[in-house]
Amino acid sequence: MTDEQARVFLAQGTRTGKLATSRADGRPHVAPIWFILDGVDLLFMTGANTVKGRTLRRDPRAALTVDLEQPPYAFVTVEGRVEISEDLDAMLLASIAIAGRYVSEAEAEAFGRRNAVPGELLLRLRPDKIIAIDDMLG
Question: pTM for this one?
Fold first, then answer.
């Protein structure tokens, strides 16, 4: 896939991402996330006291994989660094947009408002490297 095709793939439907980080002791941590694209960056949220939140404050490096789980199978992996924001206004806009991808329009605002609160983090993954494979059967 080209970078543009990878962005289209990442933005399609309700695919979740699998975010990989490294704990302080070196053990890997992988967690599913909801996300949206903002230009070339990926935006997602987590609680400040979650494993993801604590790990990314210590080490901003992360990898995110999104895959197509049925034939012809495909995936995009984005590696980069995460920028963290606690700006509640920015968080609210992003949280509503993220929710809008995964829940009904009627539920998106309530979901977004519930999550854009102190103690949550808005995370922006800036890609350094993208690996994208389409049609793994072909």
Answer: 0.94
